[in-house]
Design goal:
This protein has 475 residues and is α+β, with helices and mostly antiparallel strands. The protein folds into two domains: 178 residues, Super Roll (Bactericidal permeability-increasing protein, domain 1), CATH 3.15.10; 219 residues, Super Roll (Bactericidal permeability-increasing protein, domain 2), CATH 3.15.20.10. It contains seven helices and 23 strands. Strands 2, 3, 4, 5, 6, 7 and 8 form a seven-stranded antiparallel β-sheet that branches. The protein is rod-shaped and about 125 Å long. The protein starts with a helix and ends with a strand. It binds 2-acetamido-2-deoxy-beta-D-glucopyranose (3 copies). Keywords: Antibiotic, Antimicrobial, Disulfide bond, Glycoprotein, Immunity, Innate immunity, Secreted, Signal.
């Protein structure tokens, strides 16, 4: 019966694995076009470093019968030209990227001196190194704070053609100089190319990746967690970065009472980066802002537009509910709106719908500033949301679809709540939403690395998530 035990064990194990996998709230996919752009930057850094490289003197002593001893010194070797024209990147799924550069060209210039017992002579030497091939692997991981790590392995460089041109007076020495210079330069450069690449990754790119913001603070209470939930994954068409994508309470973090649905989408070659924002991302925002008590507002008459024909006083409201005017003639009013649950975002047929509910408490303000509770109404609102990307931020705009009202409590006797519909629609559209929109228009930060900007954006709502396709530029 061993196999049944194994089967039970396997089922249990698979179950445990599927339970422990956390779906990301934010998933980035860097396409081969984006990867290529990134590798071009690495390549140009390598070219620059090679151009500024100091090649050590090549010197030694050669004993000959005729002249007894020759001291040679090849020095002031500089690289005057570097060109690495061809680069090919292969995505090796589950392993990493293989980067292969070919047809590279380097030109060096230098001086030579030879001293013997009876003479000394000097000249210049130039080398053209053709058909340089460089290859290495890039592997991706994450550190314990959830930031991405990249490491370079298996670097190899190969120089197939190296042509040395010597000039000076003693042409009979040229062959000796070539014989001294050629193997040393070949060995030095092929080692140095991989060493320089290694330095670029450890000294430049790794510190740079440390600037990836895994948490972005929004205000004193709320932040966004952009840490990697699992290792970056190399797929056949992209490098996948699964990030937590969750708003949370900075003061005391707690699990949200819902989980992220699976998030996957296709990419093509049109853009460098595709980002999926799960509905989870937006819903954690609503949940956290609601839990820290940010989703309440008081409306008073002075918040209405100056030319408004509606006023928040017992005179105006009294034309809709006569008791108000009768019981509290000519007084200002105040409305206190508070959400009673977190707003929920749903992606429906290409639209993003926000549904929210709450209570409106209406007060009359007595001449001595005391508030008298008049009535309270339960409110359900459906709001259409437009999401955009501006600079390095995600922004939003809300427009009211409809509000449903029902009376909860009245201290002024019964009345038809429908008579308040127009006034409430007006207050929400004209007073509340513009305030929320101004905040949403300021935006919430994306997990971008310094010096990268986005361009050519496409924003598309899908089922369960928002897809953003974009190019990026390093400046
Ligand atoms: C290389 O050779 C030049 C010229 O002989 C000399 O000035 C320089 O000090 C040498 N550099 C080193 C590091 O030996
Ligand atoms: C709104 O008014 C209520 C009732 O007067 C008060 O308790 C609350 O603190 C006010 N809220 C804000 C955000 O001003
Ligand atoms: C304000 O006026 C009302 C009615 O005149 C009165 O009942 C209440 O006690 C007053 N409150 C204060 C704080 O003076």
């Amino acid at each position: 019966m061993k196999w049944t035990r194994d089967l039970v064990f396997c089922t249990f194990f698979l179950h445990a694995v599927s339970v422990s996998a956390i779906n990301p709230g934010f998933k980035g996919k860097i396409t081969s076009r984006g990867i290529n752009y990134g590798c071009q930057i690495v390549k140009s850094v390598l070219q620059n470093r090679l151009l500024n490289m100091e090649i050590p003197n090549i010197s030694g002593i050669k004993y000959t019968n005729v002249l007894h001893q020759l001291q040679y010194n090849i020095n002031r070797i500089t690289i005057s030209n570097v060109n690495l024209p061809d680069m090919n990147i292969i995505l090796v799924p589950n392993l990493g990227l293989k980067v292969a550069m070919s047809n590279g060209y380097i030109e060096t210039n230098g001086n030579w001196q030879i001293k013997a017992n009876i003479f000394r002579t000097a000249g210049t030497v130039k080398a053209q190194i053709k058909s340089i091939a460089i290859s290495f692997y890039l592997k991706f991981g994450k550190d314990n704070t959830g930031k991405p790590i990249v490491s370079m392995t298996d670097c190899a460089s190969c120089i197939s053609k190296l042509q040395v041109y010597v000039s000076g007076r003693a042409s009979w020495l040229y062959n000796l100089i070539i014989r001294w210079y050629e193997p040393s330069l070949r060995r030095y450069l092929s080692d140095e190319i991989c060493l320089e690449l290694q330095k670029i990754f450890t000294e430049k790119i790794s510190p740079f990746l440390q600037t990836v913001p895994v948490t972005k603070k929004i205000d004193k209470c709320v932040g966004i967690d952009y840490s990697l939930t699992s290792l970056p994954e190399v797929a056949k068409d992209s490098l996948i970065l699964p990030l937590k994508g969750e708003f949370y309470n900075l003061l005391h973090r707690a699990d949200v009472p819902f989980s992220a649905p699976p998030l996957d989408f296709l990419v093509d070659y049109d853009r460098m980066l595709y980002i999926g924002f799960s509905e989870y991302f937006f819903n954690t925002a609503g949940y956290v802002f609601n839990s820290v008590g940010d989703l309440s507002i008081n409306i008073t008459d002075d918040m209405l537009p100056e030319n408004s024909h509606i006023h928040l006083d017992t005179l105006t409201i009294g034309t809709l509910i006569p008791q108000v005017k009768k019981m509290y003639p000519v007084m200002k009013m105040k409305l206190h709106l508070v959400s009673d649950s977190a707003p929920v975002v749903t992606f429906l047929n290409g639209k993003i719908i926000l549904t929210t509910s709450g209570d409106v408490f209406a007060f009359a303000i007595l001449p001595n500033s005391t508030l008298v509770a008049l009535f309270s109404i339960k409110l359900n609102a459906q709001i259409t949301t437009t999401i955009g990307i501006k600079d390095d931020k995600i922004t939003g705009q809300l427009t009211l679809d409809r509000i449903q009202l029902s009376l909860k409590k009245s201290n002024i006797g019964p009345f038809q709540v429908s008579c308040l519909q127009t006034a409430i629609d007006f207050l929400v559209s004209i007073v509340i939403l513009p305030r929320i929109n101004a905040a949403l228009d300021n935006g919430y930060p994306l997990p971008l690395i310094d010096h990268f900007t986005l361009s050519n954006l496409i924003v598309q709502p899908h089922k369960n998530f928002l897809l953003v396709a974009t190019d990026f530029t390093y400046t």
